[in-house]
Design goal:
The protein is mainly alpha-helical. 68% of the residues lie in helices and 0% in strands. It has 7 helices and no strands. It is elongated, with a radius of gyration of 19 Å.
Length: 178
């Protein structure tokens, strides 16, 4: 039903907007040295150069999950964009990608919250692990997470093909796989 598809498309847009807001807010906490946030206090300090301060965003599990979730929400937004081609797998693919986003949200809420407060504000943070203060830390993890997020699309198409018992999903997934 086209009305449900439009509703789902808007939901994907809202999900992307909320992930973007959460990611920008965490980045803001890092850039303003808000050490009342546990994640910021344990992964940065005032003497950290800007590049490593930004890379501290994905230096721990909490930030990595948020970053990865944001990338999957972006990928989902790209998949559901309006197109002239008819894609009978789109509702299934979008649903599977939204379920993946839900996994990240539930994990961040119950197991790995990047917005947990300390209850007090220390003068400085613990700093980024010295092993992570390397130029590779700036580009390597985001590159991996982009790959992980984009490979979720072929996975979603494969699951959609299994649900619909249709092998035409292979035509749609070729570009994403390459």
């Amino acid at each position: 039903r086209s009305d449900l598809e439009k509703f789902g498309d808007r939901g994907v847009l809202v999900s992307f907007a909320l992930f973007t807001f959460a990611s920008l807010y965490l980045l803001y906490l890092f850039l303003t040295h808000d050490f009342s946030n546990l994640y910021v206090a344990t992964h940065s300090n005032r003497s950290l150069p800007l590049a490593y301060l930004i890379s501290a965003f994905w230096a721990g599990q909490e930030g990595s999950l948020l970053f990865w979730g944001w990338l999957i929400s972006l990928t989902t937004l790209i998949v559901v964009r309006p197109s002239t081609a008819i894609d009978m797998f789109k509702p299934y693919v979008a649903s599977i990608l939204v379920i993946l986003q839900l996994f990240f949200i539930v994990t961040m809420i119950f197991a790995s919250n990047p917005f947990e407060n300390l209850g007090f504000t220390p003068a400085d943070g613990q700093g980024l692990n010295p092993l992570l203060q390397d130029p590779g830390m700036v580009w390597h993890p985001p590159t991996l997470f982009v790959g992980y997020a984009f490979i979720a699309v072929p996975f979603a198409y494969a699951m959609a093909g299994l649900i619909k018992k249709d092998e035409d999903w292979l035509k749609h997934v070729r570009t994403w796989t390459l």
